[in-house]
Amino acid sequence: KRIQDIEESIVFINKEEALYKWDQTSYPEVEVVKESIEPYQKLFNLVLKWQRTRKKWMDGSFLDLNGESIELEVEEYLREIYKMQKFFQQKQKKAEQEKEKIAGLKRKPKEEEDKQESATILICTSVVEQVKEFKEYIPLVSILCNPGIRPRHWEQITLRKILKQNLSPYLELFENISAGASKEFALERAMQNMVEVWDTVSFHYHPYRDTGVSILSSVDEIQTMLDDQIVKTQTMRGSPFIKPFETEIK
C-alpha cells in the first residue's frame, strides 16, 4: 500500500515537473525497494491462496469436489512453493557468504550447526508439509466425489468430517460403492441419450391413394433405430444397477 502511494506521488510530481518543463526526477530507490519486497509479496499471496483453497476443499461442499482438478492444483502449489523455497534458500546462502566475506572469517563447525533458517524458508517448509499431507487425501476424494454419486448416496457431508472418521481402512468398500455409482451413472446417461436422439428425428407422411388418409413414409431408418433401442433397453433392464431407474426404463 505504501509503495503504491509513493508511486502515485511520483506520478503527480513528474506531471508537475512536466508543466514547468523541468527535467523529471527519477527515484531508483523505489524500484530497488519494489524488487526487494516482490519475492516476499509473492510468497504471501501464494500462502494466502493455498490457505483459502485448502479451506474451500476441506469445509466447502463435498459434492463439488473433483479429484482430478484438485490433483492438478495440488501439484501446481507444490511446484510454486518449491521454487519459492529454493529462491529463499539461495538468498540466505548468498547473504551468509557476503557476511563472512566482509568479516573475513570462515564459519566454524559449531556455528554451522547453530545456523537457523530464515522465517521465509520455515514458512515454505510448513506449506510444503501441508500440501503433501493434503495430497494423501486425493485418492479418497477421487473415489467419494465420483460424478456418478447422487444425493441419494449421501447428503450434506464435508471432507473434514470424513477425514475425522479415519475411514482409510474402508477405502476398498468406498471404492466398490463408487464403482457401482459409476455404472448407475453410465446407465442414466445411456437412457438420456436414447431419449435425446428422438429430438432430431422427423416423421414424414404422404396421402395414401385416394383415401384421404396420410401414412408415414421412409420409416426404415426409424424402425432400425427403434429396434436397436429396444434391444438396449432389454439389456439395461437386466443390469443389477438399473434399480434406481426402474420406472424410467419401463
Automatic annotation (TrEMBL):
Highest taxon in the source lineage: Eukaryota
Coiled coil, from the record: none
Domain Dynein heavy chain linker, chain residue ranges per copy: 31-250
A Pfam family the protein falls into: DHC_N2
Identification of the protein by name: Dynein heavy chain linker domain-containing protein
Organism for this UniProt entry: Cirrhinus mrigala (Mrigala)
